Q: What sequence folds into this?
């Protein structure tokens, strides 16, 4: 029997799917981060299930316990406190081990703070990147802003409410006009989405807010300093023709002109 990965609501308990409720109810065992939180969800919808804790501190032990049961034909469901297991939540180790044994893994669709925040931000495009939690150290955070500035799509990241003011101040100092959205308490009673340039949003959150926070950060705006794209494209082409590796050529011209590296690289293909 398979391991069934079940996403659970990120806030509002009504956001669970009918299929997830059925799988949780039919499973021989439900693995979950906090049995009390999962029990609250199941009681809300009248579902009975046998629960067993599965979190970061006992994950290795639980994998060893559960794999024989999967191989014996039991149907086991995996749930986290909120959202899809294995995405910044426990579960990746069990899923990898199950796949490694040649056993079936079924992943159900459902709630996700990443996609919900991305759409709510108004910054969604053809692509995006998920960065997990933001770096904690000031230098690492500054490097992160620089690294992602040239990306064409938005970056979605988690941040603790306690560190949010510091992180936003860092972004505002690095790129004050860069668009950002702070998505707080998504799908809950006090849901809030604050959008704007980094300098304004940082001012809005000078004090730590309450609740869970998901950030969506747009690319850094072009400053227009020498950003003649046609000339920049031509410069990259000349460097490539002279034997400079394509990525290196795009990186050099991007630093000199302000045109995004990805645009320069693609122009040379």
A:
């Amino acid at each position: 029997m398979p391991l069934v990965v079940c996403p659970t609501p990120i806030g509002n308990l009504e956001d669970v799917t009918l299929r997830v409720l059925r799988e949780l109810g039919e499973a021989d065992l439900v693995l979950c981060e906090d049995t009390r939180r999962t029990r609250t969800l199941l009681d809300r919808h009248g579902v009975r299930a046998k629960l067993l804790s599965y979190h970061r501190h006992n994950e290795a032990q639980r994998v060893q316990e559960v794999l024989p049961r999967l191989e014996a034909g039991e149907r086991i469901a995996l749930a986290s406190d909120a959202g899809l297991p294995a995405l910044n939540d426990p579960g990746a180790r069990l899923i990898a081990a199950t796949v490694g044994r040649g056993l079936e893994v079924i992943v159900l669709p459902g709630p996700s703070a990443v996609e919900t925040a991305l759409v709510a931000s108004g910054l969604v495009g053809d692509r995006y990147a998920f960065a997990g939690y933001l770096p904690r150290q000031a230098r690492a955070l500054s490097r992160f802003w620089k690294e992602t500035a040239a990306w064409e799509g938005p970056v979605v990241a988690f941040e603790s409410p306690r560190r949010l003011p510091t992180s936003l101040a860092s972004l505002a100092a690095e790129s004050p006009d860069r668009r950002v959205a702070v998505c707080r308490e998504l799908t809950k009673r006090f849901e809030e989405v604050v959008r704007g340039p980094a300098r304004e949003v940082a001012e809005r959150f000078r004090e730590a807010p309450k609740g869970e926070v998901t950030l969506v950060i747009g690319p850094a705006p072009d400053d227009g300093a020498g950003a003649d794209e046609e000339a920049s494209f031509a410069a990259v082409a000349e460097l490539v023709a002279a034997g400079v590796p394509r990525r290196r050529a795009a990186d050099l011209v991007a630093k000199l002109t302000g045109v995004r590296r990805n645009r320069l690289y693609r122009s040379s293909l």
In short: Residues 59-71 form the longest helix (13 residues). The chain has a mean pLDDT of 92. The chain has three domains: 3-107, 113-217, 229-267.
